[in-house]
Amino acid sequence: MPTTTINGRDVAVDDEGFMTVYDEWDDSMGAALATAIGIEMTDEHWKAIHFLREDFKAQGETPTIRRVSTAGGIDTKQLFVLFPKKPAKKMAYIAGLPKPHGCV
Amino acid sequence: MRKLLILGGGTAGTMTANKLHRALPESEWEVTVVDADDNHRYQPGYLFMPFGTYRPDQVTRSRRKYVNKHVPLVYGEIDTVLPDENAVVLADGRRLDYDFLIIATGVTPRPDQTPGMLDGGEWRRSVHEFYSYDGSVALADKLREWPGGRLVIHITEMPIKCPVAPLEFAFLADAYFKDKGMRDKVEITYVTPLDAAFTKPIAAEAFGNTLEEKGITVVPDFMIESVDAEGRRIVAYDETEVPFDLLVTIPLNMGADYVGRSGLGNDLNLVPVDKFTQQAKAHDNIFALGDANDIPASKAGSVAHFEVDVFVENFVQLIAGEAMTHKFDGHANCFIETGDGKAMLIDFNYDTEPLPGKFPYGGLGPMGLLKESHLNHLGKLAFKWVYWNMLMPGRPLPLSTAMSLSGKQTELIDAK
Question: Of B345, B374, B340, B58, which Cα lies nearest the Cα of B173?
């Protein structure tokens, strides 16, 4: 498993750079990851990212866009504004979680 | 007498009923199947009906005929499962008690879930699907008379059953219009929410190349927001648009509504289960088999088949008070029609993506994996016979339940 340095700390990541250890993440990491993919975090961004973190903890898997919309209460259209083009992938990346599956 | 209730008499439910009937002593167990009607559809046939390869009457048989005659088949709509009372209530008020429950009611296409798809005024006119019996029949009529134009093949959202079927539809459409001498009048576009032609990288590359060879354009990363039926275009959340003259969409696939009503499902009414045993996470005496569960494997008949094999072994242990020691590995095996009498074959599981090579015997084959051949096409056609005569009665197949790496070019995984 490769490691990389984010925000001055060594963390485990997968081949695509997604963090793989849940507890290695904190808000400052999230902010650094967001900057790396050109996203400036606002309160609305954090609401989505914190929902992803909480839901992963409870369910054991990264929520899909559908779930962020229905259970997290953030409109899908708005997710595309906050995390342009690929919201599912970008949110998971910033939240330090695996890419959502469902794609098999 | 202990009661085992199976909801759904389709691919997974029928196989489970027949295998359990054999595995459990009849003096101690009463196995019952519930379904709304007696029409067991051969769903792989839906792909072929639009092109006139199968007639509608060739895809339907009697459920009753394929469920062991000692297993009662109750006809009725399911209203609710009451997991705390171990009972199922039907729409007409009948109540069926169980000791163990198996949910095998699959998934269905839901065009009502995308604005403008069902309610835009163009449903079954310029907006079609082939994931239901009625839809497949209607599309056959449409294709016969269609003068040509922009054909858009579209996937709403994953997961869908038979994830290769939309690709096959694209390949077969190319061949169909070539045959009719009008391929130059048809522009084919393949629109997907995935970032490539398929979910797994090595297969995606092979399928992507085949699409390109056939002159089919791929539009990836397209998350549909709505169908603008009047304006003949699909619109994505990021406001990109794809215009069409004929849209063949795969609507959102959802589990049965009663699953949601009973509090047993996720956002798509799929039952969350342990991916190795298919036991419901919330209830020890409920299992969900086939398309109805949420395991990260393809929703396909071959998956249901391998899964049911493992389930029956585990279930016998469970009722003997033992731990369930068998683990389903996510094994899937699918033929992919590529047109002109050829097909490809893929074989994969949770951990190993589809790879090129030989199947089922390393070095010998005779079938090639991820490669077009006439033999694979014959395999696909023969599968209909295998389905009704081997799979449904629960007869053993000469294939191992767990996926084998023999014959697969595993070095490609490391080369990535």
Answer: B340
Q: What confidence tens digit (pLDDT) does each residue in B151-170 have?
A: 999 999 999 999 999 999 99
Q: Using omega within 30 degrees of 0 as the cis cutoff, is the peptide bond preceding B360 cis?
A: yes
Closest by Cβ to A102, choosing from B159, B200, B225: B159
Chain-chain contact of A67 with B157 (C-beta, under 8 angstroms):
no
CB atoms inside a 10 Å sphere around CB B292: 30
For residue B380, give Cα distances in angstroms to B303, B337, B353, B387, B392: 16, 8, 21, 11, 17
pLDDT at A103: 46
In terms of Cα–Cα distance, which of B251, B294, B297 is closest to B269?
A: B294
Inform me whether the pLDDT recorded for B233 exceeds 50: yes
Q: What is residue B415's predicted lDDT score, i.e. its pLDDT?
A: 57
ipTM: 0.73
Cα dihedral across residues B292, B294, B297, B298: positive or negative: positive
Q: Is the pLDDT of residue B414 over 70?
A: no
In A, residues 43-102, which contact B (CB 8 Å cutoff)? 64-67, 70-71, 76-77, 79-80, 84-86, 101-102
Residue B80 pLDDT > 60 = yes
Query: Distance (Å) from the C-alpha of residue B352 to the closest C-alpha of chain A?
Result: 12
Both tokens of A78, joined, read: 């708005």
Q: How far is A83 from chain B (nearest CA, A)?
A: 10
What mean pLDDT is predicted for residues A32-51?
96
